Records
---
Amino acid sequence: MAMEITQFLLAAQSPDANIRTQAEASLRQFQEQNLPLFLLSLSVELANNEKPLESRRLAGIVLKNSLDAKDSVRKEHLVQQWMAIEISMKAQIKDLLLRTLGSSASEARHTSAQVIAKVASIEIPRKQWPELIGSLLKNMTQQENPAALKQATLETLGYVCEEISHQDLVQDEVNSVLTAVVQGMNLAEHSREVRLAATKALYNALDFAQTNFENDMERNFIMKVVCETAISKEADIRQAAFECLVSIASTYYDVLEPYMQTLFQLTSNAVKGDEESVALQAIEFWSSICDEEIELQEYGTVEGGDSGSTHSRFIEKALPYLVPLLLDTLLKQEEDQDQDDSIWNISMAGGTCLGLVARTVGDSVVKLVMPFVEGNILKPDWHCREAATYAFGSILEGPSIETLGPLVSNGLDLLLNAMRDENNHVKDTTAWALSRIFEFLHCPASGFSVVSPENLQRIVTVLLESINDAPNVSEKVCGAIYYLAQGYEDAGANSSHLTQYIPTIISELLKTAERTDGSDSKIRTSAYETLNETLELQIFSSDDREKQGDLQASLCAVIQVIIQKLSSTDETKPSILQAADPIMFLFLRVFACRRSTVHEEAMLAIGALAHASGPEFEKYMPELYKYLEMGLQNFEEYEVCGITVGVIGDICRALEDKVLPYCDGIMNHLVRNLQSAELHRSVKPPIFACFGDIALAIGEQFSKYIEPTVAMMRSAAEVCAQMDNSDEELMDYGNQLKRSIFEAYSGILQGFKDSKPELMLPHAGHLFQFIEVVFREKYRDESVTKAAVAVMGDLADALGPNTKILFKDNAFCVQFLGECLQSDDENLKETANWTQVMIARVVS
């Protein structure tokens, strides 16, 4: 019997914080105490048309979040929770969800469709809920069913196809789904809402249609319906139809030949005159064709060969018509597109597609593009100048050096002059085009470069002048300098041409990295990456890289000691904080070196800097995080992995809850590392200790990780209990593992102490069992003893009176404490005294 939760759901949305907090706590308590009944109650709320829309909306959101999560660890936990619910209870919930598809409230129907798909993603791969597809198809075949139910059903079918694999359905089910979806797209029979839902559902179902696309008649029918839908009078339906065509282009390239003339006409008309959302998809169709043909060329598949798809050369055949179409789009810029990286418009899409065309056909594109460039590059209208520059920059990858070399050499001076253009858009695109020139046409080591000793000074002068321009231009200029420097790698004596300019370049890049007029950290990141490349040029030019690596490692170690010494007193600590930015920049540079010993020393020094900087270290995390991920994934050089785990602990202690944005990613890596048989076992104990550091840093926010984390700690504890203590090496590893498990429990208990200590109550009994196992060991390491006694105190401190019975039932605790209080180790005695006080508070 479901519980009445309407008032709690409404109160949880109250503007009054006190009312809201109390309601959220009540819902959370209900969820933790009886999850099956909680989910059933939410389903009843969502299905009931008489309930307020606000409570039904929140019920749907909570239902969905109870079945799925972005974090893979959390997601697996939710899956296991659902699988543990009784079949009869799950059947009631699923029945309510299916009934909600016929609700009078569109929001309830939409939410129910999403939740059904989440349940399907869990059950269908496990061969459960076999009747789902049949139930949904029945909604479509009964003529008397209202349009709203059919629309919601099609939406559900689309979501289900998105969530599961094509291997999860038998072909008869696939045929039935496709039939229902394609019939739903029929203009004569269905409303706009139904046709839109059907078209979107087809997009998600296309991966399931491999067998159908192999059949000429079925494929022809599907293509006919999609093409007809692409000229519907409603723009959103046309957009959805073109999205289907984009997917078909990449999934079923082999069978497109008979339809290409029609598809060119459709896409051409859309690009020329349709709404931008539709035109963007029409351009994307040709970009997808390019992607397929580039892949075919790179893998060397020959036409008619057995090794893969047939290369139909669609781009080559359409080239005389496609290139002018794309060039026209370049003139449709938006006034502020250079200021916002999130903008994606027809001009950008056209330029991107033109670049893919150039990679696909090579030299053939140049003669079609250059008249447009030459005709627009000097026009008074900035739109023309920018479009010409964009077109030129777009074709620099693909055509041969022999074809492009003379054109770029002749046009380089014009582009350098354009860096002083009065229009910001033109300068932005020009800087990007220069970076492309240096990336693809500047490689002295291979014998060709458009950069010569004669023009290098002018190039550097213009770039360093332009780096002080608007933030978006400055960022692109950093990219140009990056590729200019990169081109001199392994260039031998030729690299000396740039050497005289490096001090000035470094100085300007450092100033750029400190700019505060950008809207985000992109300038800073770009400047640092370019600095790294410029400085690395000196290393790549050296014949003694081995010594260079040793020197870097030694310097990192020295800096680590200096940081630790100077940060240990209030008088000298400010000197470290003042120098933290350049020090951190140098550490990040060191990761460009490919030697593990250098990475180890850099990581250790970063840990020291995090400890010294405290919460201020947060500003380095966006750039550092990728190196932390690389370290966690470095199984081969496992020492680096282990040190990275330790540094994450340092960072957690420094940042506390400011580390929260990075915790999902970190926890995913740590859990995967524990599960991996490839990672050296020595790294695994520090991972458990790191769990404690993270929990202590983020407090109650650790609750979403608690179930999988404790499950792994229990498994590790069982391994410890079964270990062969006659093997000295294995015994040493076992001691490390035990100590780390106890440290993890301590961190988690203290992290939850002030907010959610009750979350650890279900695990207290097992922890006592593990402590007793350790207590009764004949040979026990003193560090393990101390960790075990400390966690007993943390249990009493965090869980309070809830542990009274546990302490009274486990008489060994008194004996264990008595033993520790007799120890000669003062630290152990101090810990035992504290634990004794904590336990006394509980049991008295």
---
Amino acid sequence: MQRAAFFSGGDAQMAAGDLGELLVPYMPTIRVPKSGDRVYKTECAFSYDSPKVPGASGGALPKRRNAKLFLDLETNSDPNNDDFEYEDEAKLVIFPDHYEILLPNIEELPALVTIACDALLSAKSPYRKQDPDSWEEELQASKHAKTLVQLDNGVRIPPSGWKCSKCDLRENLWLNLTDGSVLCGKWFFDGSGGNGHAMEHYKETGYPLAVKLGTITPDGADVYSFDEEEPVLDPHIAKHLAHFGIDMLQMQVTENGLRDNDIKPRVSEWEVIQEAGVKLKPMYGPGYTGMKNLGNSCYLNAVMQAIFSIPEFQRAYVGNLPRIFDYSPLDPTQDFNTQMAKLGHGLLSGQYSKPPMKSELIEQVMKEEHKPQHNGISPRMFKAFISKGHPEFSSNRQQDAQEFFLHLINLVERNPVGSENPSDVFRFLVEERTQCCQSRKVRYTERVDYIMQLPVAMEAATNKDELIAYELKRREAEAARRPPPELVRAKIPFSACLQAFSEPNNVEDFWSSALQAKSAGVKTSRFASFPEYLVVQIKKFTFGLDWIPKKLDVSVDMPDFLDISHLRARGLQPGEEELPDIAPPIIIPDDAKDRMTNHFVESLDIDESSVMQLAEMGFPLEACRKAVYYTGNLGAEVAFNWIIAHMEEPDFAEPLVIPAFGEVASSGAAVFGAVGLDNQPPEEMVAIIISMGFQRNLAIQALKATNNNLERALEWIFSHPELEEETEPALDMMDMENNANANILAETGSEGPRIKDGSGRYELFGFISHMGTSTMSGHYVCHLKKEGRWVIYNDLRVCASERPPKDLGYIYFYHRIPS
């Protein structure tokens, strides 16, 4: 495959000749970038090589600009700071012979090529901020950071108990790095509320930089520049915080002469999960590559580290890398498989995880050259693509790792590569047994899932007396405005969470086909198949009475070895009688002024309990309301299917707008929205039919045959029972835009859901932990078991774990033990 491309740097200079004649075969492929085109100049579409990486394709080495280099190396200074400059040069490179033409070259190059080169070189970053919530460029170092004056006023900041010095507010607090004032914010980039006292202080004093308390970690903190009116980086943040007694690196106390038994127990989840206070040995090499935090992107980093520790994903993307790259489209930055292969290679190759060699650096200094160590990768292109069009992941806000995991699996499903789909290792079938409490009749249905969600059984806490005493002390301290007491965390047995999962749950608004009326119903879930890799989520996130998201700060004794064989589904048992296959009636209200429609006799009310169940999973509240509304209050499971089908839409999180009765296209359609493109039935109607136990392809076929009339579609299904046993290939490939990898895709099977059933015995190999009070804030860290020992992945920092906090995890990864 031949391509004309633009690169920076290179090795061989092209011999003199007729450049115009040489470029003739490529002229039809050259075009000038227009406004809105994505131009990537600092990141390769196929690798994480850059001019700063030794041995990369192109790139001049940095030149030493002053005598501070040796001193900076001795103090572990960042070689990429202002003390170094890169001498850039641009060349036009013609493949496959790698002819290079130094730019600019107006005299010899055709006008079209010159214009295209100039447009590329002057193009703005594709990551530029488009709107307040969209993906934006990396933060830049503040112009004040290097010369910041700090007052020697004796101020020392305590580790907790902060409040605004002007209004006593205890949230959204900012520490001014000049005088140590702690004041509340208002108009800052995270959208938090406050009274604006930090801004008022700046206007009075001119002190420019402030750090947000609660965001300080060993990797940095959120810093805002009032003068520059934007969030910034402070390369000297550790020194600036130390001035006020804050040790962001959490140096281990044992080095100060204290014995181990003199050390106070560390109960803060930030300290425990990140293993602060313990000297951790950095890890280097293949599989030990860190990922840069792009600004609240730790959820992505943690999930991708876990994903690419799984052999099936390694084989699918890194093993198939040559084929994927060969079949990549003209714009590989917009191809899912290309970007997955690039990320997998970056994490697993070891090319971006090399130990520092101080002797070699000193030798380079003496030769007046410097090759910076390039550890870790910056997944900017991957994040920009994978979050494209998603209202939450495309923002710079913190997100739920579980929601991102499902989003990733959805993309893997839609962009298969090779003969097997790697996401199959997570796929399993759930058998749901629904029983009418009055008639005692049952219905068995199956659905596909990827995560086992375990409720937190708070009532089973083994330290209830300690919790009660702690709560009393906490309230007394709050009333007296004293520092809070040492935290007591609820200890929950894993067996209690597993028991809560297996217990029957009430079915809201259950319609019994045996009674032809609403009745009480219960539902139990069991595994119809066990996956190769079991992903377990501890449902720590919930909503308070004030509808504010919060997290249950609990400790769950997660086992290293897990046996859930007793949760195997058994199907219809002797003596059980099945519920009749009769659909609930669909009734259109006579009053057009009602502006609503419902498939039950009652007018439509949004089931708030289902909305809350979905919101606890991390989905936007308005999207949850729409999902429940458009699926006719048939429960959280059906609404969840609607969310998965619509989460890519631009208005996914927009407020619900109920259509007017006059806008109804057909009977019952007001509930389910407009008819899809290309005569595709609305997903809401499909979801309702599937929830009644019918197959997806049969639901689509019935709706198409009846012009998307739900009532007639159900009648059509009952009049064609012979079709219920038939299956057919997938009816559409679901948004394969810009994906030329279709040439190497395996054909979709027609035998039903793909599962890898086997034993129900598992061993723990990884977990993702969350620090913070809700999914909208905090930090994620990943622990993985590699080569017999635990390793902590904390963004760019990859170290051998000494105290893996397995009891504080949020998402756990288990691998099946071979029988």
